[in-house]
Design brief:
Chain lengths: 302, 745
Amino acid sequence: MSLTDLESYELLHAPSLAALVALVADRHASGLHTVLLAGGTDWLVEQESRPPLPSGVEHPVVLDVSRMPELRALEVVSGEGGDRLRVGAAVTYLELRRSAVVGERAPLLARMAADVGALQIQARGTIGGNLATASPAADGVAALAALDADVLVESVRGRRTIPFSALQTGYKTSTRAPDEVLVAVEIALPSRGAPFVWRKVAARRAQAISKVALAGVAEVEDGRVTRFGVGMASVAPVTARLPTVRALALSRPIAEIDAASVDRAVEADVSPIDDVRSTRDYRLHCAKALVRAWLRQLGARG
Amino acid sequence: MQPSVGVSVPRVDGAAKVAGTALYVDDLPPLPGELHGVTVRSRVARGRLRGVTFDPAIDWSDVTIVRAEDVTPNVVALIVDDQPVLAADVIRHAYEPVVLLACADRAKLARAAAAVTLEVDPLPPILDPEAALSADAVVEGRSNLQKRYLITKGAADVGDEASLAAIEAALAGCEVVVRGRYTTTHQEQLYLEPQGLIARWDDHGVHVVGSIQCPYYVHKALTKGFDLPADRVHVTQAVTGGGFGGKEEYPSVLALHAALLARKSGRPVRMIYDRKEDLEATTKRHPAICDVATGCDRDGTLRVLAMRVVMDGGAYVTLTPVVLSRGALHAAGAYRWRDARIEALAAATNTPPNGAFRGFGAPQTIWAIERHLDAVARELGRDPLDLRRQNLLTIGDTTATGQKLAFSVAGLECLDKARADSGYDEKRRRGPVATGRVARGIGAATFLHGAGFTGSGERNLKGKAAVDLVAGGRLLIRTGSTDIGQGTETVFRQIVADAAGLPIGAVDYAPVCTTHVPDSGPTVASRTIMIVGSIVESAARKVAARVAAERDRAGGTFAEAGDRLIAAGEVTELVQYVSPDYVKWDDATYKGDAYPVFAWSCFIAEVDVDLDTFETTVVGFWSATDVGRAVNPVLCVGQIEGGALQALGWALTEEIVWKDGLIQNPRLTNYIIPTALDAPHMTTALIEEPFPFGPGGGAKGIGELPMDGGAPAVAAAIEHATGLSLGALPLSPERLLAASRRNAL
Ligand SMILES: Cc1cc2nc3c(=O)[nH]c(=O)nc-3n(C[C@H](O)[C@H](O)[C@H](O)COP(=O)(O)OP(=O)(O)OC[C@H]3O[C@@H](n4cnc5c(N)ncnc54)[C@H](O)[C@@H]3O)c2cc1C
C-alpha cells in the first residue's frame, strides 16, 4: 500500500562496522527499529504492502550497508581445516556469478545465483539480505544450507559464528539477535570437482520464486558418500535440510540406495503446503523427483 | 517516389520511448493545485453496505470525499445501464468502488484511505457462472443471463426451440461422434503502464487526459455522466503503454471517478492505479466453459457441430454481449460444417466485470474447437493437421452463419507453409522424442479471425477520419484511432504517404483529443488498419487530387500548389466509412456476413516437457498468417509474435487465483506472464492474399488473431510429447501431474 511514506525516511551511511553495530544497539535499546538496507529487493517490496505509517510516529532510520567494506569480502581463506570461502553479507548474486573463485570452488553458489530473479535483481540482491529475510523459499539460503555454511554476525557484544544447523528456529525466525548484523558466511570448500546439484522448479525461467528448489553438495569416496549437504526451498516453514535423506545417503554404499527408500525419506523430511504458487501435492512430487535425481547422480539405483 | 507501404519504416514513436522521453500520463508535470485521488473498494464479493465510517483521528478537512449520493445519475453508460459509478447500498463484487478520496499529500491520502471503514453485511457470493444461471439475481431485478445468442445452420436451422433436438438427431446420424468439455480462465491484459488519468474542470467544461484506448468512449461516459453537451467534454490520449482491450471500457469508470473528485474539490485530480489495484479492479478476459459435440464421417469429413458456450460476465454487463457474440461467431473455427448449432450464454457472477481483451471471446471458443479436433483426430487415428486440412474453409464455402467466402481466404496456404517450416511431418512421424527425462512433442492449430466490427457494426458505427493539407506540402491525419504501442501512428502515415504520393516524413498525426479529431470508432476489433486505415487512405487521395488539380491548373510543386489552395481557405477532407455493399447481416437470425473478411493462420508449437516436474518449455514456434497485405512487415510480425507470446502465457502460466471472490495473486510476482527468457524463437511467415477493400493494397486486421492459436497448439504439442490431453487452461505442471495420475489409473 504505501511507498508514499518513503520520502520521509532518513537514509544514512555508517562510517564503519563498529559505528554501525553501535548505532543499531543504541536504537534497539531504546525500542527503535533500524533498517539495514543492502540491495533493497526484499525490503522495498515489503514496504509496498505495509499499511501506511500513522502520522506523528518516528520514521525508521535506514542504514545503507551495501558498500560497507567489511561486508564485501569474497575470498578463499586457507586454514588448518582446509580452504574456506568467505562471502560478505553485501556480496550480490551477480558478483557470485562472475567470481572466478566461486565458479571454480563453489559452483553451486554461482548456479544458484544465476537463477535468482533476473539480472536486475541479481545486480542488487545480496546473500545477507536473503539470509536476513529468511524466507523458506529463499534460493540463497538453500545453497548455504547445502554447504553447511557458518554465519558470522557482529554486535556491540562482539563477533560470533552461528553454524547453519543452529540458525533457523521457525518461519522467518532465527537465533540471530535483533541487534546482530550479518557480516559474512563461511563455507568449508568441497573438494575440487565435487558433485553438486542446483535445481529450481518455478513457474517461469526468470523472476519466479521457487515452487521447490534443491541445492546439494556431496563427496563420494569408494562408492560411499562422505559429505552430504542439501537445502530445499519451499517445502517447509524453514529451509529444509532433509536429515532423513542425509542419514540415508551416509548410511550405506550409494549403489544400495533405491528410489522407494529415498521417497520415504523425503516424505519424512518435508511438509509442503498449498499456496498461491503451487500445491502441496505437486511440491511433494517434485521434492521426491529432485532428490531421487540427485542421488542417482551420485550413483544410487533407479 | 519510393512507396512507404510494404516497407518496415521505423516506428515514429520509437525513439522517444527508447530514450524515456515519452510522457505517459503519470509523467505529466503536476498542474497547479493538483490533488491525488484514490478509490476505497468493498473487499467483500457480495453484501449490503450498511454504512461508512471515517476515523476521526484523521483531519478530514483537506480531503475531498465523493460517495454514491454525490453522483447523479449513478450509472456508467454502456450497453446496459446496470453498473453504478459508486456502490450505494449493494456490493456486487469485491473491488466495487464505494468511496473516492482526494488530497494533495499522497502520504496522508494513503492514511486517509486506510481510515475509511465500510460496514458490509456479507452475503454468499455467486461465483460459478453455470450455477449463476439458476441462482438469485446478482443485480436485483435483472436476470443473471446477461445475453444469449443462437447460431443455426443446416439441419439445426429449424427455429430456436426445435434446434436442440434437430442437432442431436443430426449427430446421431453421423458415423463418428465425439464429445468434450473445454474450459478457459480469466486472463489479465497486463499492459506495461497501469491505468491512470488526470481530470480538471474549467470554463470550457471537463478535460481528461490519460492512458486511453478509446477516447470517444470516455467522451460518451462523461457526456452522459455529467449531462454535458458534447462540446464541453474534452478527452485527450496521453502516450499509452499498451491496452490489449483493457483500456477500452474501463477508463470510462476512472474518468468519471477523477472528474467527480475534480468537480467537488474544484482542483485537478490525478488518479493513477498501482499494479495491484489495476490487476484487481479492471476488466479481464471472460472465462468460458464450452461443451462440444461433433459428428463426422469415418474418412474425417466433418459434418455436424454442436457447441454450448457459457461465459462468466462478472457482476455487470459492460461489453459482455459483444465479447460473447465474437466468441459464438468463431466457435465453428476455420472449418466447413453441414449442420451447426452454437448456443452462447453469458452469466452474471459476483466477480469484477470481465471485458475486452485481444481476441474478444474468440480465443475461448477456438481453444475449444481446436482441442476438440485433436480429440476427433485421435478417435479417427488421423494426423491432426491432415484432418484440419481436409476440412478447412476455402473460397466458395459457407461459414456457420451462412457467409459465403468469396476472396482473401488462405487458410490452406498458411497450414502448408507453417507445416513445412516447422518440419511437422518429420517430427510427428518420429514420434515424441525423449532425452533423459524430457519429452519433446509438436502440435498445431489452424484458425481464422474476423476483422472489423461484427455484422452490421461498421455500417452503424459510421467511423470518420480526416486528412488536412498543411502549409509546406504537408498532410495532417486527424483520427480518433489511438496508437497504444501497436504502431498505428506509423502505419497510418505510410498509408497516407502512398495515397498522396508523398514521402512519409511529410505526414503528421494529430494528437488524439476529441475536441480536434473526429470519431473514427474505437481502437478495437482488429479494425484500425483495415477500416480506419481505408478511411484515411481515401481522405488522403481526395486531398492529393485537389492538389493535383491545382498543379494542373497553375503548375508548381505539391507544396507550392498546396500553399496556394490553403491561402484560399482550409483544405481538409473528412471521410466516413462506407461498408462494402456485399456485407449483409441479419442481427435477428444471426445469419449473413459476420465480418467483411477473415484473416487466416496456422500456429505450430514444439515443446519440451520435463517428465519429473511437468514443466513445459516451448522450444520452437512457427506460424504462417494471411494478413492480406503487410503495410509494415516488421510491425505486422511484431503483432503476431507479441500476440502469440501473450497466448503462450494464457496457455501455460497465467491464472487468477480466487478465494471467495477475492484475487489472491494481484502482483507481477505471482500472476505469471512470460518473460523474454520464456519466449521461444519464433519463425513467422506472412502470407498476402489481399482484401480488395483493404488499404495499402489489401490489408486485413490481424491485431487479435495471434491470441487465438497459441494455447491449442501448445496443448497439442504437450499431448504429443506426453500422451496427456488437457481440456482446461492453464496447462500448468500441477494440472499435468494430476492428469498423469488419472492416466495411470
Ligand atoms: C523481482 C524479484 C525477484 C526475486 N527473485 C528471487 C529469487 O528468485 N530467489 C530468492 O531467493 N529471492 C528472490 N527475491 C528476493 C530478494 O531479491 C532476495 O532475498 C535478496 O537476496 C535480498 O537481498 P537484498 O540485499 O536486496 O535485501 P534487502 O531488501 O536490502 O534487505 C532484506 C532484509 O535483510 C536485512 N539485511 C540486509 N543486510 C543485512 C545485514 N548485513 N545484516 C542484517 N540484516 C540485513 C534488511 O534489513 C531487510 O530486513 C526476489 C525479489 C524481487 C523483487
